[in-house]
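Trying the structure run again after the queue cleared.
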Amino acid sequence: MTGLAQTKKVKTTAIKALKKTPKTPPKNKVPPPLFQSGTVPLVVLDANILIPEYLRAVFLDLGDAGLLRPYWSAEILKEVRRNLISPKFGLSPVNVDHMLACMKTAFPDALVQGYQKLEKQFALTVDKKDLHVAAAAWRLSQHAYGGQSVVLATSNMKDLPNAAFTNTQVTSARPDRVLQDLLTIYRAELPVVLKAMCKRFKKPAIAQEDLLGILENSQCKGFAAKLAAAWGFKPEV
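Done. Tokens:
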């Protein structure tokens, strides 16, 4: 990739990480890849992925570009709405409803339904408040394209542990791992999509280095470092 990203020198952790040669973990510690090249990944987005503005934008822009198929349930969207209009975020209900309506229009097939009867299967392994999330991911996997596996992107691995999905086609994973694995199969396309996304934000404007910092603060440091490298950023000497 050419342009500004190749010449700027910035001080973000992601850029500094380029100086280091990461240690290769033992083979038995390396998790298997989440996705296979040649198929569009199916990703259920937990509320904690959709609530943060820029993390939501990253996943939805990748979905809009056809690099993944995003999914959610009505209960997940209710949780998103409840949080965004709460005093913590303070967004207008009208604006939040408009955003959710745009998401539904952009991804008309994203809604997972008919999962409620599956919640009891996770009663002993998943936190009660997240049963609907686990059940929705499992439901999607049962009706996936050609039996394709499903990834549940969540920042809450404590209450949605991957062990809960043993003997299913669902894998729960933190957004950092999900995004790193997406970058592995879309090395050329993904950096271009996110560079274009940065240009779309105007109030406030978001530079590429700003996005890297946001990703770091969203517990996506590994992905931020790899994205910085893909964009051609060079660390300060």
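The two ends are 22 Å apart (CA to CA). Worth checking whether this holds up in the mutant runs.
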